[in-house]
Amino acid sequence: MWADNETSEDLLGFKVHAELIIEVIKDEGLLPVSVGVFGDWGSGKSSILKIIYEQLKGDGDELNEGTLVIYFNGWMFEGYDDAKAALLETIIKKFEENKKISTQIKEQTTKLLKSVNWMRVLGLGFKKIAIPAASAYFTGGLSLIPYLSGELQKISPKELVDKLQGDDGENFLHSLLKDKKGEVDETTLIREFRDDFKKMIDQSKIKKLVVIIDDLDRCTHERIIENLEAIKLFLNVEKTAFIIGADPRIVRHAIEQRYRTERIGATSDANDKNQRIITDYLEKLIQIPYNLPRLSDHEVETYMTLLFCKRQLTSSYPKVLESFREFRIKNRYGVFGFADIETHLSEQEKEALRSSITLIASLSSIIAEGLKGNPRQIKRFLNTFTLRHKLASIATIQDFKIDVLAKLMVLEYTYEDLFKELYTWQSVKEGEPDEIKELEEAAEKSQMASLDIKYSSQWKDEQVVRWLKAEPKLSGIDLRDYFWIARDKLFSSLSGSTLIPAHIKSLFKSLLNFGSASLLKDKITNEVLIENGANLSLLLSLFEKELIKTPNNSDLHKIFLQMMSQRVPNSLSTYKKVLKRIDHDAIPFSLRADFVFAIKENPELEDLKTQMDPKSQIYKALNQKK
């Protein structure tokens, strides 16, 4: 098994990307600068950021050769009252805690931390903090805002209760925000914060400050925006560099949510303008975007080879890793495989690795394509594969072939509907379905078009056809044991949900809260239709399960109707499957107009009426005489 954590150990050959970003921030002529390390969920962003952090801080503390480097994990502060304040406070305290510079800047850090406390108060809003602060005062606990709590304690309990519960409670809290300079104003506060921060940088005499922000895309939309607003405070502050790792689609969606209230009921021109606002916001914040490339087939094969080496080797592993580094310098395109490592292995180690690496070589291309070259997905795939292989051994299954298991799992994780369809076929044919033989033969002869009527269109997808052609062939193999091992996926959604990319989960949630018909149509055009077949299958599967659970949810039906109207691949077949499993009387009668409009837009949807129970209200509504 392999741990699913970020690491500075480079098994992906990503050190070259880290070194490129380091070269950028070492160029003092480019400072101040903000760099975005962009990639999908699990693409290796965190590992690159760890490599950058380790190299910049060197063997000593976080101040190395005049560079102070700070690593901030946004997700760890998800539960804090104000993520913006948490980031600012972390940066300032790193200055305060560093013994080499703390004595020079004590006055500035104290002043800056006080400013952060005021920002926290202003950022939360008075109505949000009145009750928590008062409650903390009376129960003896700590307030969310220690500084404000101190001000409240100067007032008698009876007077405090009267003022907070009165109509003028908010003005009362405003009156507490007095400094020697007068009332605290947020604009003035931010300007003074920037000035004080510059002074702290100068007084500390550091050459540069590098702040690495990780896991931003794991945060809620609100927290993402708070962190982005904090970063904006430092833009154009001399000697600073920010390196931000994130999935840009999730960040864009968070920015979009910020403008959501302005977009409800907006025209398409207004929506286009909002998209430009989102793009401008992100481009101003991230001056240098760096998009991580997807792993190639050869890189996937190399990565899996090194993962197996790490798991199965002990004393030889460091030699293998060093050999890989040397190989990658000389050859950026080839596979680092068994022939490259066997000279470092004992005979026993060679034997232990041989079968695993042979399997990797035969299936790496379809694993690479099926899992989109995503390192985290590959690691999770291999962990599940290992568990199932062990289960087969413990269950003493005879003639069990691990390459057959691996091939079936690729279908399972990329086209779950087809995997379940294959399960149904084999369950009625004692494990050897005629259908898979027919499909494999058609794929080999490039005759898939001849099977149009008999099989769903998904079997024609290029990726599925390549899967059908790949060895080992499944014709003539009893598949019952393999599906018995995979029954956790067949009878539970838990194993599949952990492999759904974060941006698909985010897209699913945003579609559920579409707001208006025009927004839903735009979102399907701009976000759903651009997804690949595997991700579309996952998204449709989420909606399928949700609608089966709540067939009376009008919005879910509207989402399907809009996707079918815009001819989202397999949306029609998925909706038909739903209709077979739900009570049609649960479909809200109010959806009649939506059905009529969808059928008018796409006549193919007329066929939906034949799937409905003739006794149901929705069927009668759609077939009533005009």
UniProtKB/TrEMBL annotation:
Domain of life assignment:
Bacteria
Q: Which InterPro entries match?
A: KAP_P-loop, NTPase_KAP_P-loop, P-loop_NTPase
Cite the KAP NTPase domain residue spans from the record: 16-391
Q: Name one Pfam family in it.
A: KAP_NTPase
Full protein name: NTPase
What is the organism of origin for this protein?
Flavisolibacter ginsenosidimutans
